[in-house]
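To: structure subgroup
Subject: Chain for Friday's discussion

All,

I'm putting the inputs and outputs inline so they're searchable in the archive.
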Amino acid sequence: MRIIENVLSDRGSKYAVSGGPAASREAAAAFLAELTRAKKFARATHNSWALLLEEDGRREGVKNDDGEAGAGAVILRMLEREGLVNHIVVVTRWYGGVKLGGDRFRHVTEAVRVYLAERG
């Protein structure tokens, strides 16, 4: 599991990104359970995530916005473009009291970019 904290902050909201191998929905659930064992992540406002599963040459996208409408789809599109299969990416947001509007999608995108760049 790779966790990158303090990826960015905006108007009080703070973001982190994490990820790791996950070759099934069950593995994704286990990853999320492990991540949220840390109180900091368990108390986060949103843990939006996506996973691009591949088995026998077929790909299936799995995503969860966790209340941050559209965030899972943003993450999934980036995984598809990157061709990163059987790997979960989670963008965590701690709400800072000010609505970010459409900027939240830019922040999710930037968090995933940071993760992919550090992953190599």
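Points worth raising on Friday:
The first helix runs from residue 25 to 35.
The helical segments are 25-35, 39-42, 71-82, 103-119.

D.
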